[in-house]
Amino acid sequence: MMTWPLGLSAWNSASPFSKPRSADCSPGPDGPRADPDPLCDLLEKARDAGVEPGAFVRAVDAEARRRLGAFLDGVEGYRSHDYHRAGLDPPPVWRQGSTVLRDFSDTPAEPERRARARVGPPILLVPSLINRGYILNLSQRRAFAPYLAWRGLRPILVDWGAPGAAEREFTLTDYVARLEAALEFVRETTGRAPILLGYCMGGLLSLALAQRRQAVLAGLVLLATPWDFHADRAAAQGRLATALAPWIDPVLEVHENLPVDLLQAAFATIDPPSIGRKFRGFANLGPRSAAARHFVAMEDWLNDGVPLAGAVASETLRGWYGDNTTARGRWCVDGEPVRPESVTIPAFVVVPQRDRIVPAVSARALARALPRAEVREPLLGHVGMITGRRAVALVHDPLVRWALKTTRGKA
Q1: Residue-wise pLDDT tens digits, 2-30
Q2: In what order do the strands lie in the sheet with 373-376?
């Protein structure tokens, strides 16, 4: 809304915003100016093309109105859509504080596949702390965890929940300790050494746990997991840290947790124009189409985040994003530095090349540091690697093959 009138004023000859830095756009006495004004260049091109200024302004105005209208149509269509995610998650099999575990081995419809999953290699799925874990079981059509069960693994999902009374003072060390308790439950329940799978921020928690308990793990899977947060400061991680830095202390002085609305606003700074693009695209979809239902499911998940406990917000946003404590070897869990080079169990690392949340160069640094990592770099995005149409072929199937091979013959 703000860019619309500002954009139009730049083309209005009566507006000071339309005036270039110099008095006019003509070349200087020694030829073309050394510091050409971008607006001058555009005006000269329009003039050379014979575009009448008034017609140009009217065209910009019409296009701005069209885009704004399509955006608002998309938002309204999303708000009024009748899709609601319900009944897709298995009941909890373990609980500690706000955290529960969900066993997906009973989700395959075919009895023989259910039986196979019940005795299959266990894989503990660890999502991020700030987004709901059901991204790994988004919908009937895009269901990562149930697909792993269908292929013969026994996926058990960590559902963190929102921080409650028990988690108000939690640090990352506390969350790793809780994850360790969940791991012990899985080991006792299945009688087998599990694979530990971490997605995004959950990958860092999984890495820390793997370092502590690799003797009882069959392997480690890391999906879109950041490590070198300063590898590309111009990319998403740098922009996110810059957006949040001024707000952390003032907000935590008032709130025990970092509110989800602030986190959502900060993540929106990664690619602000994408918000308009996606809702305009949604406005063109048939409301009953599979694509429209998937869009609504994704948006519901994106808007269903959870706050971060205050100490965790400080450790992650100041430490990881701000000071790059991970790559500098200064991130500690229970007083011990987390060092990927010390994790010698088999690892499967996926580095999505089109990831705008975790730049590939950041995740690649972690893959290089792991001694026994098999690395895949699909042409997918951060969420597309989980729910995209090509995710099964490029990520899920290779992961299953690696997991079955890695656990073959292991108790």
Answers
A1: 445 545 555 555 454 444 444 455 555 55
A2: 92-96, 99-103, 154-159, 122-126, 195-199, 219-223, 347-350, 373-376
- How many domains does one find in the chain? 1
- Any domain includes 299: no
And the tokens for 21?
């830095």
Residue 22 inside a domain? The answer is: no
Tokens encoding 81:
């859509």
Spatial neighbors of 318 by CB under 8 A, at least 6 apart, are 245, 248
Taking the C-alpha atoms of residue 404 and residue 410, their distance in angstroms, rounded to an integer, is 10
Return the CATH number at 203. Answer: 3.40.50.1820
| Position 36 pLDDT exceeds 70 | no
Q: What pLDDT sits at residue 233?
A: 60
Print the domain residue range for 351: 92-232+331-407
Is 114 contained in some domain?
Answer: yes
Q: Does 48 fall in a domain?
A: no
The pLDDT of 59-87, averaged and rounded, is 91
Nearest to 358 by CA among 395, 338, 336, 384: 384
**Cα–Cα distance for residue pair 71/63, rounded to 1 Å:** 12
> What are the backbone dihedrals phi and psi of residue 398, each rounded to the nearest 5 degrees, phi first?
-60, -35
Question: pLDDT tens-digit profile of 144-170?
Answer: 999 999 999 999 999 999 999 999 899
Note the pLDDT tens digit of each residue in 194-213: 999 999 999 999 999 999 99
Q: Quote the mean pLDDT of the chain.
A: 87
Q: Which of 203-207, 249-253, 259-263, 338-342 shows the lowest mean pLDDT across its residues?
A: 249-253
